Amino acid sequence: MSEERSLNFIEHIIEDDLKAGVKKDQLRFRFPPEPNGYLHIGHASSICLNFGLGNRYNAPVNLRFDDTNPTKEEQEYVDAIKRDVEWLGFEWDRECYASDYFQQLYDWAVTLIKKGKAYVDSQNSETIAEQKGSPTKPGTPSPYRDRSVAENLEIFEGMKNGEFEEGAHVLRAKIDMSSTNMLMRDPVMYRILNKAHHRTGNDWHIYPMYDWAHGESDYIEQVSHSLCTLEFLPHRELYDWFLDQVYDKNKVRSKQREFARRNLSHTVVSKRKLLRLVEEGVVSGWDDPRMPTISGLRRRGYTPDSIKKFADTIGIAKRENLIDVSLLEFCIREDLNKKANRVMAVLDPVKVIITNYPEGKEEWLDAENNPEEEVMTYRKVPFSREIYIEREDFKEEANRKFFRLTLGKEVRLKNAYIIKGESVVKDENGNITEIYCTYDEDSRSGSGTEASMRKVKGTLHWVSVAHAREVEVRIYDRLFTDPEPDGHEDKDFLEFINPESLKIVKGFAEPSLAESKPGEQFQFQRLGYFCVDKDATEENIVFNKTVGLRDTWAKLQDK
C-alpha cells in the first residue's frame, strides 16, 4: 500500500493545503480541553490525532485550556489533564489558556461594536431563545439590535466592570436573524458572570462564549488546523465569520475541520454523566478503574501503548459509530502479553496436601518470568507439602473433558511436579476443605528425567501455603450491562449499572509479589492481567484486574 493511500482524510486536507501554498513551518495543531472534568477515552483519540499530526509533520502542538466558564472549572482538572497527556507520551509546545486572551478578545469585541457588528441585548435568555425562531421559521430581531454604538460601548464597559447583575445584559454578534444556520442568528458573545476565575481571579465580570473564544484563540496562537468533533460542524460557519472580523492576510488563517466522535460500548463519555457517577457515589472517583477516564484506565492497568494502539486501530472517520469495548481490551491484552511477567496467585483457594512429600521440606523451583522475552529470565518459587489451588480446578467426579485435578487422575503443577488426586475432606455442609494427593518424585519440571517428560493433559497454577502472601484483589467488570446505557430516551443511564462491576476477594500469591509497587503489572497465570493499585501498602497488597486472558463477555452475552 502506498504512503498516499494510507493517509486519513484529515491528512489529505493538510497535504492539499501544503500543495496550495501553506508552508510546512506554518503548520501548528492544538488539543483544547475544557478543564471541567477528567479526560476520557474519547479525548485520547483526539490527543493521538493532534499530537500524531505534530509528530508526522514535525509541527508544534499547543495544549490549550478553553477555560471560559469559571463556574465549572478547577485547577484539579488542569493538573489531571496535563498528567494524562504526559503519561500518554506526548509533549506540547506551548501551554496556553483562553483566559490569556481575555483582554484581546474584549478589545476585538469593542471593535465589532464600533463597526456595528455587535450589540448589547438586555433581554433574558428565554426571550432571546424564543426570538431565534426555528430551522423552518426566521428569527425575530431583538428590540435592542439597533442600539447606538455609544450606548453599546457604555453598557459593555459597565458589564466588564461588574456594574450589573448576572443575566441583565449579553453581548451579541449582529449577523443574520433569518440564516438557515440557527447559530448565525445573532449568537451571544459575552455573558455576565460575577464569579472568580481559577486563573484571573476577580479581574473579569464578563466571560466569552465558546464560539467567540475558540476560533479567535486558534488565530492568536496561529493554529493552522483546528480539529473538532462532528457536533461542531454547524459551528464552522460562525468560526469563519468571527475570523473574518479580525483576520490579517499576512497571518495564518486557522481552519476548522471535523472528525467523528467514537463512542465506546458499555460506558458513557459525557462529562456531565461521568460527574454524576462520581457525585452519586456509583464509583469511588474520577480514577475509579471502571471509569473510561484516562486516569481510571491507567489505575486499572492500561498502558499508554495500548491506548494509542486502540486510537490508531479505530482511526479517524467522518461518521460516528459505537466501538465495542472488547477492542480496547484486545489492545491491552496484546500489549501486556509482551510486557507482563507471569506469576502465580490463587483467588479462590482450596488446600492440597501431598501426603508422600516429606513434612517440613521445601524446594525453590525455577519459574520463567515471561516466555515472550528475547532472553529468558527466571525467578525462584517455593514448593512444599501443602499448597493452594483454585477451587474450580478440582472435581471429585469429572467427565473425560475435565483436564484438571480429580480423584484417580494426574495433573501437572506449573514448574513443579505431577500429582494425583487420592481423597478429600469435607465440612458438615459437604464443602471440600482439603484434597489429599500423591506426587511423582521424579517428575519435576525441567529436571530432564523420563518422568518429567511424561505428558499429562492439565497444568495448574498453585501457591505454597507456608510461603503464600495474602492479597486483596479487586475484580472489575464492565460498569454497565447495556452496550449503550445512555441510548434510551425513556430510561436513566444509571438503570443499567452492572451490580457485578466490582467484586473484592482475598487470595494468596507467591512470595515474590510481596515487593511489588503501585502500577506494576503481572499476568496471574491462567487468570488474567493484574496491576498493583495505589491503595496498596506493605501490609495489604491490593491488585486490580485489568483484563482476563480472553474475551469471556461475548460468551456470557450469547448465553
Describe the structure.
It is built from 13 helices and 29 strands. Helix 2 (41-57) crosses helix 11 (304-314), helix 7 packs across helix 8 and helix 11 (304-314) crosses helix 12 (325-339). The radius of gyration is 31 Å and the shape is elongated. The chain is an alpha/beta fold. The chain has a 7-stranded mixed β-sheet, with helices on one face. Strands 23-20-21-22-14-17-24 form a 7-stranded mixed β-sheet, with no helix packed on it.
Output the number of helix runs: 13
Derived structural class: alpha/beta
Trace the largest sheet across and list its strands: 12-27-28-29-25-26-13
Overall mean confidence score, pLDDT: 94
Largest sheet: 7 strands, mixed
N/C terminus separation? 41 Å
Got a strand count? 29
Report the principal-axis shape. elongated
List the uncertain runs: 1-5
Q: Please report which band the strand proportion falls in: under 5%, 5-15%, 15-25%, 25-35%, 35-45% or over 45%.
A: 15-25%
Fraction in helix: 25-40%
Rg calculated over all Cα atoms:
31 Å
Family: Belongs to the class-I aminoacyl-tRNA synthetase family.
InterPro entries: aa-tRNA-synth_I_CS, Gln-tRNA-synth, Gln/Glu-tRNA_Ligase, Glu/Gln-tRNA-synth, Glu/Gln-tRNA-synth_Ib_cat-dom, Glu/Gln-tRNA-synth_Ib_codon-bd, Glu_tRNA_lig_a-bdl, Rbsml_bL25/Gln-tRNA_synth_N
GO molecular function: ligase activity
Keywords: Aminoacyl-tRNA synthetase, ATP-binding, Cytoplasm, Ligase, Nucleotide-binding, Protein biosynthesis
